[in-house]
Amino acid sequence: MIYFDKVSKIYSPTSIALEDVSFTIKPNEFVSLVGQSGAGKTTLLKLLLAEERPTSGQIFFESSDIHALLKHELPLVRRRMGVVFQDYRLLPMKTAFENVAFALEAAGRPDADISSDVIQVLELVGLADKIWNFPHELSGGEKQRVAIARAIVTRPDVVIADEPTGNLDPLNTRDIIRLLEKVNDLGTTVLLATHDKEIIDSLERRVVTLDKGRVIRDELRGRYVL
Amino acid sequence: MVSLATVLVMSLSIFMIGLVLVGGSFLSAVISNLEGKVDISAYFKQAAPEAEILALKRELESLPEVNGAKYVSADEALALFKERHQGDEIVLQSLEVVGGNPFSPSLEIQAKDPTKFEAISKFLESGRYDNILDKETSGQKKITYRQNQLAIDKLTSLLATARRLGFALSIILALIALLVAYSTVRLAIYNAKDEISVMQLVGASRAFIRGPFLVEGIIYGVIAPILTLAVFYPAFWFAGEKTAGLFGGLNIFSYFISNIFQISFILLLIGILLGVFSAYIATRRYIKV
């Protein structure tokens, strides 16, 4: 479903973010991307989201080369990917409901569908009672759950999470990871970038390990080893 | 989101553009009004045969500089004089004392525009018509130019200067307004850059992201002309009161009122184009999809 083909990202000769990275993600997989800070996890996700262009190599989402898409085609592909960030990236002037509804509005869904879908998804992430709260009224874990709700409300094919638990305590971390597992169980591919050893060891799913921009290990039931 | 400073600068530039627009077309109207009133008069010897004068008239009319020529016979001139001085016994009596018809036949020539005067007078002075053209005792041919020539010359040069100056000024102001509107929108976009990046990541199309900023540009483009018209109305009313006698009876206020729809339409169009254009450029720079 997602295929990295000999992808390199070189900012300058002394700063090589990714070098000759190739791997495939199959539909409905739960893939963890691990590595120390600076190993290239975030760069890899940015390339997948077409926020940056690779220096060489190609990235395929299903049959389409993401970086060869026309400008108006890119939004259509992005609607099939849900994204979750370490810093949540919620819009501060919008309530939880509006933040989630926003993704559906951007995707051009009719208003009639939006309301019921948003409430359903917020219930799924366990925020039924905080629908009308603004982000600053929510805890870190709650904010991240709103972000996950926003990522999955468009029913994407893949959810991409970049250090989603980086700012959370162990209890909230476990909740968020469980939520991602639930999302995966419902049929969505999950790509999780993290450097949290405990998460990886408890997941027992496929682990791709990056080090200095290269894939050094790709195991189906991986553990956090560096 | 809509900032007062941007509205004011946009209004100022729309104001200047409007002033140039209204002022220029008003002055044009004044000039063509004056030009229609007056012309060159060439006087002929009383004995000059009418056929020759009419031949000259036809020749004049064929000149590119000439708009039209009207023949006034000696009898018509007398009738006109009598009509003008109706009830003025002394003048009419003195006319009787002179006996006969003291007037000369004449041609009233309308030039296309004041700059063509010289060509026409050269044509008349060329000597071909010496035998029919009346002469002063000094030998000078009797050709008179309109009395308002001075006023027309002044207005013409004033108009040319005003147009050039106003044009340059409104272009500069429009550029400034464009830059200010651009900076404001850019700032708004900078403030909204997180929002925009989130929009892009959830797959919003460019049109969806750009829409609100274009609407903001349109709002500026609508408010500025409305403010401008609100200032124009009392300003022209005042100017009209003060200058009504100056422009040959034309009043700038009534001119403004009778053309209010065209003026509003043009200013609104310029304002909206200015607002949308600057928003479009600013978003173009900041949305990278």
Strands, helices and their partners?
The complex is a heterodimer of chains A (226) and B (289).
Chain A: E1 2-12, E2 15-25, E3 30-34, H1 41-48, E4 56-61, E5 64-65, H2 74-78, E6 81-85, H3 96-106, H4 111-124, H5 140-152, E7 158-162, H6 170-185, E8 189-194, H7 197-203, E9 206-211, E10 214-219
Parallel strand pairs in A: 3-8, 3-9, 6-7, 7-8
Antiparallel strand pairs in A: 1-2, 1-4, 4-5, 9-10
Chain B: H1 4-37, E1 40-43, H2 50-61, E2 66-72, H3 74-84, H4 89-98, E3 106-111, H5 117-125, E4 143-144, H6 149-191, H7 193-201, H8 206-243, H9 252-258, H10 260-286
Antiparallel strand pairs in B: 1-3, 1-4, 2-3
Helix pairs in contact in B: 1-6, 1-8, 1-10, 6-7, 6-8, 6-10, 8-9, 8-10
Explain how this protein is built:
The complex is a heterodimer of chains A (226) and B (289). Chain A has helices at 41-48, 74-78, 96-106, 111-124, 140-152, 170-185, 197-203, and strands spanning 2-12, 15-25, 30-34, 56-61, 64-65, 81-85, 158-162, 189-194, 206-211, 214-219. By secondary structure, chain A is an alpha/beta fold. The model of chain A has no long low-confidence stretch (mean pLDDT 91). Chain B has two domains: 4-33 and 150-286, no CATH class; 39-145, Alpha-Beta Plaits (2-Layer Sandwich), CATH 3.30.70.3040. Chain B contains ten helices and four strands, in the order αβαβααβαβααααα. Chain B has a four-stranded antiparallel β-sheet. Chain B is elongated, with a radius of gyration of 30 Å.
How are strands sequenced across the largest beta sheet of chain A? 6-7-8-3-9-10
Largest interface: A-B, 22 and 14 residues
Strand numbers in spatial order across the main sheet of chain B: 2-3-1-4
Number of strands of chain B: 4
The biggest beta sheet of chain B is recorded as: 4 strands, antiparallel
Strand/helix succession of chain A:
EEEHEEHEHHHEHEHEE
* Overall 3D form of chain A: globular
- Low-confidence runs of chain A (pLDDT<50, min 5 residues)? none
User: How large a portion of the residues of chain A is in β-strands, by DSSP E?
Assistant: 25-35%
The count of helical stretches of chain A stands at: 7
**Broad shape of chain B:** elongated
User: Could you tell me the strand content of chain B as a percent range?
Assistant: 5-15%
